[in-house]
Amino acid sequence: MTSPTERHPTAGLDETVHQRVRLGILAILSEADKATFSYISEALDVTNGNLSAHVTVLANAGLVTVDKGFVGNRPRTWLRATAKGRATFRAEMAALSKLVARFQGTTKAP
Amino acid sequence: MALERSSDKQLLDSVDSARRRTRSVLSTNWFPMMLFGLLALVSVPVYQIWSWQAMAALWMVGAPVAGIATGRWYRSRANSIGISVNPVPYVITALAIFVGCIAFGIAGRGDALSYAGPIMVIGLGYVAFAVVDKSLLDAVFGAATAAVGIAVLALRPSHAYAVTMLFFGIGAVLLGLRNLLQARRSR
Predict the structure, then answer these.
(1) Which residues of chain B does A100 touch, with a Cβ-Cβ cutoff of 8 Å?
(2) Which of A49, B30, B92, B116 is most deeply packed, by most CB within 10 A?
């Protein structure tokens, strides 16, 4: 049980990133220096329109940056996690792990 | 409530899976592994047939050329697959290896330290690369390579250069081949 002074793990969850696609974007960008829009849409199996909406949310929150450029004649959109984005991702993963561990603890109890 | 927590578990699993896949794509390093491994293997007959100077010249020219080729390979690969690693830790480690090898080569004056020092630096450098790549196998190889350097320094075998470079060269080529096969399979 949570003691009155201890924060419940849900308090550590971030509304902006607590979503499969947005957390997936940050997961990929936390491992890489940068990734293209098309790589992420393929890796997370989402449409470009769907991904674009989620990227806009993350960019508006200052968690990712978007750079448009060219490789030869082909346009490329590169995404990069900001320092705030990496920190938010780490905090979200910690809160989520704590929450899942607590849930597993309660379900395993006789 | 239980349903919500179960979806949190699914969310955590899907994020872990995305991270693992990304890590696996990014840890593809067969090109530099095989290139530097082959360079080490080629340097053995160069040293045996010609001279210490010829071997040193091969490394002084070959290592920067191989380093530049590796940089171009990573860049071209990043552009083709759409994901890239931060090059800074790799460049710093590569430069530290290059400078460390030259320093030991000069300080050793042709003695066992000339061969043991650089292989220890290379081994520690590979451990650093492995830490960045989060690859346990590569870290073990780096540590083993450094250990060979320490053994050579302690035992001073008659063919110290051949022993160190054959160990490193064969190991790097084999690890590179394994990485290439893994990369092909995961496509």
Answers:
(1) 5, 8-9, 12
(2) B116
Encoded tokens for A59? 């960019």
Identify whether the C-beta of residue B125 lies closer than 8 Å to the C-beta of residue B97. yes
Q: Between chains, do A24 and B18 touch, taking CB under 8 Å as contact? A: yes
Show the CA angle centred on residue B44, arms to residues B109 and B147, nearest 5°: 70
Chain centroid to CA B66: 12
Model pLDDT, residue B134 = 87
Distance from CA of A83 to the nearest CA of B (A): 14
Contact A28 B12 (CB under 8 A): no
Non-local (6+) Cβ contacts of B91 within 8 A are B71
Task: Please report how many Cα atoms fall inside a 13 Å half-sphere around the Cα of residue B43, on the Cβ side.
Answer: 29
pLDDT at A4: 54
Asked if pLDDT for residue A109 goes beyond 90, the answer is no
Digit-coded pLDDT (tens) for B7-49: 778 888 888 888 888 888 888 899 999 999 999 999 999 999 9
Report the alpha-carbon distance of residue A67 to residue A59 in Å, rounded.
11
Domains located in chain A, CATH noted: 12-101 (1.10.10.10)
Closest of B85, B178, B92, B97 to residue B133, by C-alpha? B85
How many angstroms away from the CA of A5 is the closest CA of chain B? 22
Return phi, psi of residue A81, to 5°: -80, 140
Domain boundary assignment for chain B: 29-185
Give the residue-averaged pLDDT of A27-41: 93
Average pLDDT estimate for A30-52: 92
Query: Which of A20, A32, A36 is closest, CB to CB, to B11?
Result: A20
Tens of pLDDT, residues B123-143:
999 999 999 988 999 999 999
